[in-house]
Structure prediction request, 319 residues.
Amino acid sequence: MRKNLKYNLIWLAILVVSYLALLVFYNIGIIDLFLDNAIVNIGINVILAVGLNLIIGYSGQFSLGHAGFMAIGAYAGAIFGMKMPTYGGFFLGMLVGAMVSGLVALAVGIPTLRLKGDYLAIATLGVAEIIRILIVNLEGITNGPAGIFGIPQYTSWEMVFLFAALALLIVVNFIHSGPGRAVLAIREDEIAAESMGVNTTKYKVMAFVVGAMTASVAGSLFAGYKQSVFPGDFDFMKSVDILIIVVFGGMGSTTGAVVAAVVLGILNTLLQDFGSVRMIIYALALIIIMIFKPSGLLGTWELSVKRIFDKFAKKGADV
Prediction:
């Protein structure tokens, strides 16, 4: 409990400082609509990356189905937000989307998480495509390929910040709990963990469900901000975009996932004026990082109160 409190303290301190800084920037007019869009997208990507990192980085399961769970949340938020145009309706849709995503992840995870490597990646990609195709064909509910537009703008930067903070705290506490330690043991050596009595399928499915539910929440926030959702928003490339953030930051580092989401979000914003050349520069930046830092920006490094205190103590001793 005390160890979890230490991890919570450092993240809470960072979140409070970040929120206050953003609040000041908004109030003095530094942040305009363009920057607001970038900040909201960064926040949504933080939620997506932290959830996927739990699946890939911590439990060691290679998933390409994150866009599918995001789509469930986006359409649930959009449908309920349109039928009941109040914040209550929107949050109800978010809750329903998270529950449906969790149930789908549970139903899919039990048989598929016995697979490994490329086979698991193909299976989860198939699940995401099934979800997208169902959305396209359920025209009476989802409006099919035409998508849903005219959604009231429920999502604000404060709301995204709050849910990003909750996702961070949930994942950080999960990793430093008993089930989280079991997940880490499975990642390091699944056979050894199983021989020690760890129910590997149970804990892999648990991580998969948590990651899917966070993706669903991010999807609802996406719909509430963009005011429209289309099946094409959640194709294979969307899953790859989220995967890039996780790999870029360092698989197995929640801190890395957050830093990568922020860095890539800023890079993407700065390159907006370069038109079609933007994606080439973006890709080159990723390639350079992967060549010189194949483990990602931070590898498996994490922020911790103990590490910070030890660093300051060492500096004091040197003085």
Summary: The beta strands are 148-149, 228-229. The radius of gyration is 20 Å. The longest strand covers residues 148-149. The chain has a mean pLDDT of 85.
